[in-house]
Predict the 3D structure of the following.
Amino acid sequence: MFRLGRNVVMGVAALAAAPAFGREACQERTLSLRYTPQAGSHWCWAAGSQMVMEMLGVEPNRACQCRQAEQVLGVTGCCVTSSACVPAGDVPAHCDEPRWPAFVERPDRYSFDYRTTCDALPGRQDDEACEARPLGWRELTVEICGGRPVLASFRSRGSTRGHLIVVKGFSTHYGRRVLVMDPKSLCPPGRDCEGELDEGYWISYDEYAAGWGGLVHWVDFYGIRRKPAGRVRPTRHKRGRRRQEARVWLGHVC
């Protein structure tokens, strides 16, 4: 799950009326994402980031979860060796911490454009103003039709931690439905499952927007795409610590 603490959410573009990149339209679509379960108890952010970044062309040895943890947390020993991309057998506690997606936490290392459904809210330090801010149906379908998965977060109401899932498809058969993958578990019993491992499952858009299992919708990351070469912003340094040119946002997932 995510932990709320001083963190970054983005300095790319503000959400006005939830405009998506482009206006692609299709009737339904399922994206080809390779399912990756989270390797650490608090690595839903890393697993979700890995699935999305690998689909968008990031090399597996940079997108793997243990490497993300080392880059985001500024630690070592999360991977078996410095050259391997296999998590340490028992993920060390200093590696297994909640965070936001790696391209949000470390834009200097993972160069992506993205938007969030909370960017237009005043006083971004007040996370309670960002409860239940799902991407609209129209905007979500535009993203999937354009080949861009969506990362969606959920939390208990008022909690400082949340959980991250990946949206990989949508359909209008049997109503407005969304195909999601949960890094923490495969398709739960009683759900309409899909995939070789039953890793994906269908939920109604209404359930997606409202939340389920005691969780409410928090914030979505969408418009995710790699920046062209040469567009990485330089980092600033203050009091000896690396600072990112991004808006301060309270909160974490997993």
Remarks:
- The CA atoms of residues 57 and 226 lie 8 Å apart.
- The longest strand covers residues 216-226.
- Residues 44-55 form the longest helix (12 residues).
